[in-house]
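Format notes (please read before filing issues)

Several people have asked whether sequences and structure tokens are stored in separate files. They are not. Every record keeps both together, in the order shown below: the sequence lines, then the token lines. Line labels are part of the format and must not be stripped during preprocessing.
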Amino acid sequence: MLGLIQDDRYFSVFGLSRKTQKYSTEQLYDILQMKITWDVLFHTLALLFVGNGEGWFLILDASPLEQKHARFRIAKHGHIPITGMKNVPHNQVMSLILSNGVVQIVLDYRIWVSPKVARKGDYKKQTQLALELLKRYRFFKMPIKTIVFDNFFSAKRILIWLNDNGFKWTTRLKSNRVIYIQGKEFCIKDINLALGECIQAELRGIPGAIQILHIQHQDEIVYVATNDISLDKYQFERSYRLRWKIEEFHREAKQQLGLEYLWMRNYLALYNHVGFVCLAFSILSMIRSKESMSIGDMKRHIQNELYSTHDGIDRFAQFCPT
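Then the structure lines:
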């Protein structure tokens, strides 16, 4: 983690300095080959910070780990060449984070690998990985049971699992999703909801009442749904907009902490690299909660402190007796 904060993004399993192209003994590259229980570490860290969980919520999302111009993809069984293959998706990181609107703490993550390069026995759909994250989260018995996610994760099996385990969820729905209003079947788009209009309905195949709201989010007109029918329209809209916090995590982790700086050639190194980035981001987010700083500014502030302390010790040593 200190390698990511102190030595910027130059953190590689090869043990090479990006600046000098020579082996560096100052950066702990070998640790990328260790077995690390990241979820235990993250949940322990979160429990120390969130108290009873009031004001906190969960966010689930995925983001590509792009390797521009790369001729390989990283799978569990190795570094797989994709020369001659068409449209091979990048690996993706799927994250479950905890946020109170100011602080974001990563709780767990999974690496999705395209079926074009994964072995058949290793491949898992993204919805399957999402459910794994949720089940693992339940294992730690944390108090927060409010979750926000996008329509990609609004699969029937996920929503039923959340309902059965007492979660309050808010998600975006596709306009062709089938719902029931007073026993009559409709596609959402056929109801012609006005912007800002909210109705109660039921989703096909998922027991229980939900609310559906028609809003403009960013540059899109979208339908959002929640199983928390106690929310008024404004609370409902705000709960979905909080999902943007995970987009901030992805952006800052890539731009400031080298999430996509992938020099490794095996899956364990990739998994640990993502883990260190998530840990660095979470700690920086906790620290900056008392300061009006971005993640990047906080990182540079810590770098300056580390470098100035190091230089100060060197200068002081010049005046010490040998």
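For reference, the curators noted about this record: The chain has two domains: 35-150+243-307, 168-234. Residues 295-318 form the longest helix (24 residues).
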